[in-house]
Design goal:
Blueprint: H1 4-71, H2 74-96, H3 101-121, E1 124-126, E2 139-146, E3 155-160, E4 163-165, E5 168-171, E6 173-179
Parallel strand pairs: 2-6
Antiparallel strand pairs: 1-4, 3-6, 4-5
Helix pairs in contact: 2-3
């Protein structure tokens, strides 16, 4: 049989063992907590860096977009500057030769061709009108002409040219359209 002293010693041994287990368990939890805190710091740092990168990307994209819009017409303007020079030369020669208008008209015709070539280079197309079938998508009828001898819905006259830019309507051609009269 166990005496009371032996029981107390046994109890002390168990208590000290429980104490050691509690200390080691507490230390393990403390180590685990520090690991978790370090991981959290690492993830927070990564998050802040990614957020900064995203903000920088947004700013850079906005600047590029702004520059693109700002200078989108640069190529067109560079192509139109020689046309402006030609207009200035034509105006200068027109002032010198007041008696001969044919030279001025010829010069203006050449400037018109140069301007059209520059605009075509950037995707401008003229919409065919006179003699073609009326198309409400690209023609704007401002007058109807009754003619018993003509086919109905044919463009008879063009008042203002229509243009497409890379296939998109810039301005509809303003036209008169024939209609067949019943007389």
């Amino acid at each position: 049989m166990m005496s009371q002293q032996d029981a107390e010693k046994s109890s002390e041994i168990h208590d000290s063992g429980d104490s050691n287990d509690a200390n080691s368990s507490e230390n393990a939890m403390q180590v685990e907590l520090e690991k978790s805190r370090e991981e959290a710091r690492v993830f927070q740092d990564k998050y802040l860096r990614q957020a900064a990168d995203l903000e920088n990307y947004r700013r850079r994209s906005e600047k590029e977009k702004s520059d693109l819009l700002k200078f989108a017409a640069e190529g067109l303007v560079k192509d139109l500057v020689p046309v402006l020079d030609s207009f200035n030369q034509a105006m200068g020669s027109g002032q010198e030769t007041t008696t001969d208008a044919s030279g001025l008209l010829e010069g203006m015709g050449m400037v018109k061709l140069q301007l059209l070539a520059a605009l075509r280079k950037h995707g401008l197309e003229e919409i065919p009108a006179v003699g073609s079938k009326f198309d409400p998508n690209v023609h704007q009828a401002i007058q109807r002409i009754e003619d018993p001898d003509c086919e109905s819905e044919i463009v008879a006259q063009e008042f203002a040219k229509g243009y497409l830019l890379n296939g998109r309507l810039v301005r509809a051609a303003m036209v008169s359209v024939t209609t067949r009269s019943d007389s």
